[in-house]
Amino acid sequence: MKVVPGLLRVTLVLLRYRLDELIDATHLFRPLKLVRPFLGKPMVDVRPLSRGARIRLALNELGPIFVKAGQVLSTRRDLVPADIADELSMLQDQVPPFPGEEARAIVEREFRQPINELYASFDPVPLASASISQVHGATLEDGREVVVKVLRPRIEQRIARDVRLIRSLGELAQRWHPNADKIRPLDVVSEVEKMLENELDLQREGASASLLRRNFASGVDMYVPEVYWELTTARVLTLERVSGVSCDDIAAIDAAGIDRKQLAAKGVRLFYEQVFRDNFFHADAHPGNIWVDPTRAKEPRFIALDFGIMGSLPEADQYWLAQNFIALFERDYARIAKLHIDAGWMPASIRMDELEAAVRTVCEPYFTRPLSQISLAELVVKLFQTARRFELTLQPQLILLQKTLLNIEGVGRMLDPDIDIWAVAHPVLKRILRERYSPMRTFREIRKRVPEWFHNAPQLPELVRNAMRQIAIGEQRFVHDIETLSHQRDLVRRVLRMIGSGLLGGTLIISATLLWTLSPHHGAVLPLCLAGGGLLAFVYGWMRH
């Protein structure tokens, strides 16, 4: 019952902005349409505006948490119509600042020290203000300039209240909206909650900035501000203060003498390096968070800001996604279909020929254009939308990646309208995959896992003996449709051959790793020979199974 006034307020705002279709979808609130003549008029004339613009204005009036929800919805182009998603992507998370004295008090309370003992100076006038936090300029004792990000007072209670309201709206939509199975409103609410939870922990944001800075330690292509950990807590984050121009300020970039074509290509390369080399990417890469260093004309670089929303992929999804991109670049539609099923994104019962035909139907019209005119981000969105007909299961990480791809491509085309995304991305991705899955990297991974193998090695003979005993007495059923004893005996022989080959291969690879680790002065010839023998044993056991 506590959320009923909030629900009524939301409904009345939607009515004022003539969003009747949303009210109609929630049958419980249809009678409220009768009171629209008494609601007053919105701040702007909404009659000539599109539905997306009306939704954007309504969310702005409802407040910061609804703005956050709209920003999340703008990334769900697999669920939200393109016209609405475009409007929602324009939502800006800006609210009036809270008093600088309150910010000072929060900092002092967090560190239990007077602020003049923490900073040489602290500007009470904020540099920027958002719904979760605001940023103040400050100076350290040694003269270095920093920015101090401070959470708003009592923000946790406000967010908890508004999240309860949004969840109630989601439950109503889940129950009454005719397309609830496609929109999945409760999933969207969960994404909003997760985003807000992450943004409420500034120490987590600092850790994200620190990792991204380490991944680009050279600072040649991208600069990430330093985190001052001694002045950082869950409610206060202190970062190096940087200066630059927004990446959409074309006039300032040209005035600095920066080659925009080179800068645009570098931005695309940075995206693929973050996703597929480091598996850690900036997932809120709009122009406000991506600056350009105007002092670097000959070797341009980006400056990253605001690390509240970062993304990563499970290793398996990362591999399958990279292979899908390669197949897409090479127009291998059959491989795209197979990869989607092999990755487990779709049920194995899906007919591959039908999926291949659907992928070809989406992709072929794009390839009739010059490559420089093909939007990879748009194509990926349409592929996801098409694949949903085949029961595609998308992970939240992939949705975040899709949003980032849209942002990066938008920045690239803003800097260089003629950029050929495909020509830039294809060789970068192939190089990263070649390095990531090279034999030497595989050997390094094996070397790292040797201690774990030694820890588990004493259990291996007992596990093998138990497995063979179960096979011998028939306690383990391997295949349900075996009808004759001869088939069972044949299966047992093949399994035993696989176990034997696996044991031999594992022993040889462990021996090679030990020789390489403990006696490197003896050279790499013998370890490589042993490792090669181990791999051959695995291949033999697999091919003969």
Q: pLDDT average, as an integer?
A: 79
- Unreliable segments of 5+ consecutive residues: 478-485
> What composes the largest sheet?
5 strands, antiparallel
Number of strands: 11
Strand content bin:
5-15%
Euclidean distance between termini CA atoms: 63 Å
Mind telling me the C-alpha Rg? 28 Å
Gross morphology is globular
Structural class: alpha+beta
Helix amount: 55-70%
Put the structure in a nutshell.
Helix content is 59%, strand content 7%.
Task: Please give a structural write-up.
The protein has 545 residues and is an alpha+beta fold. It has helices at 4-16, 20-25, 51-62, 64-75, 82-88, 100-111, 115-118, 155-176, 180-183, 185-199, 202-215, 250-255, 260-278, 315-329, 333-342, 352-367, 376-387, 396-415, 421-436, 439-456, 460-473, 485-518, 525-543, and strands at residues 121-122, 128-129, 133-139, 145-151, 222-223, 236-240, 245-246, 281-282, 290-292, 302-304, 310-311. The strands form three sheets. Strands 1, 2, 3, 4 and 6 form a five-stranded antiparallel beta sheet that branches. α3 packs parallel to α5 (82-88). Mean pLDDT is 79; it is low at 478-485.
Task: Produce the secondary structure layout.
Layout: H1 4-16, H2 20-25, H3 51-62, H4 64-75, H5 82-88, H6 100-111, H7 115-118, E1 121-122, E2 128-129, E3 133-139, E4 145-151, H8 155-176, H9 180-183, H10 185-199, H11 202-215, E5 222-223, E6 236-240, E7 245-246, H12 250-255, H13 260-278, E8 281-282, E9 290-292, E10 302-304, E11 310-311, H14 315-329, H15 333-342, H16 352-367, H17 376-387, H18 396-415, H19 421-436, H20 439-456, H21 460-473, H22 485-518, H23 525-543
Parallel strand pairs: 5-10
Antiparallel strand pairs: 1-3, 2-3, 3-4, 4-6, 7-9, 8-11, 9-10
